[in-house]
Amino acid sequence: MANKLINQMGLPKSIANVFAARNITTAKEALSLTEFELMEVLDVSLADVTSAIARISEITCPPYQTALTLMEQRVQKEHMGGHLPTRLKGLDNALCGGIPFGVLTELVGPAGIGKTQLCLKLALLASLPTAYGGLGGRVIYIDVESKFSSKRMIEMGSKSFPDMFHTKGMAQEMAGRILVLQPASLSEFTESLQQLKISLLQNQVKLLIIDSMAALISGEYGQGPARQHLLGWHISFIKSLAEFSRIPVVVTNQVRSQTRDEACQYSFQGQSREKAVEDHTGYDSHLVAALGIHWAHAVTIRLVLDSKSGKRFIKLAKSPISPPLAFPYNITSSGITLLNDDGIELTGPEINSIHCQGHSDIINFDGERFQ
């Protein structure tokens, strides 16, 4: 706006001509001088200068907005942007409708906690006809660890939507809408990403799932600058896919052992380094998301799937529109089912903590697995 031309601001022609004659053509040039300096340069009265500056300032400076206006705009944007309902009532309410379009949503947790189960259900829901509350489109499912199960997904569909799935040929039709890629290496995965923008449009894709990103990265690269640079490229590209296609993008992340320094990095309470480390020793968890703090900042929604005291929880650990909530859940034949739709509001580092009770196959700091 500073470079907006004065002759386009609706000033009286006589004043606009004076500005042009004195080679003051933009708002920036006019506003960088005081009123008295303009009087001398333009050779006009103070009243004419004051009126001209008021007009230029009004057009150049953005108008004030109230907090209510901003809130209404955000609600409208969320409504227009769209969501993929998870059919988990409490979680959908907290997310104002479900998994949002156009951003990255991360599922993080130890092996066997239910990340792939949730991905299968989301794939099913996105491929459902709109008459049944789905998105009525195709799904691209990048299955890194060969965990995708058509049989399990169809079982979820049969239990959740018996009337539809008992129709002859419906199960085959639904399964045919889900395109599964199984890259054998990080380089193969990177090549497939380059083609995804075209595929998203040509195949009317409504959901992209990557299960799991951490398995690709840890399989070929250790820690250090090279890995962070590589991860940075993938973060940027996947975010651009989400924004370009305006569809939900869900990425699963594994866990690894936590270093002492990261006890401070993952504490968002503003406490001192010594206090954070001291508090961390009291946890029964020393695990963090495998892709690190930079990835954590890149995702818009983070769901932590956790297990503590024999109970499983989906924790809404990061969201721009919801408080940190934890929902207890079970895994049934129809998929993940919440035990309580109200959720439990958590405070402090507990919302981001990841426990390992009864689960194996955890990624350690070097990207290797241990039992």
TrEMBL record:
GO terms for biological process: double-strand break repair via homologous recombination. Residues 80-255 form the RecA family profile domain. Keywords: ATP-binding, DNA damage, DNA recombination, DNA repair, DNA-binding, Nucleotide-binding, Nucleus. It is found in: Nucleus. Its main location: nucleus. InterPro entries: AAA+_ATPase (IPR003593), DNA_recomb/repair_RecA-like (IPR016467), HHH_XRCC3_RAD51B (IPR058766), P-loop_NTPase (IPR027417), Rad51_C (IPR013632), RAD51B (IPR030548), RecA_ATP-bd (IPR020588). Belongs to the RecA family. RAD51 subfamily. It comes from the Eukaryota. The keyword Nucleus applies. The keyword DNA repair applies. PANTHER family: DNA REPAIR PROTEIN RAD51 HOMOLOG 2 (PTHR46456:SF1). SMART domains: AAA (SM00382). GO terms for cellular component: Rad51B-Rad51C-Rad51D-XRCC2 complex; replication fork. This is PREDICTED: DNA. It comes from Prunus dulcis. GO terms for molecular function: ATP binding; ATP-dependent DNA damage sensor activity; double-stranded DNA binding; four-way junction DNA binding; single-stranded DNA binding.
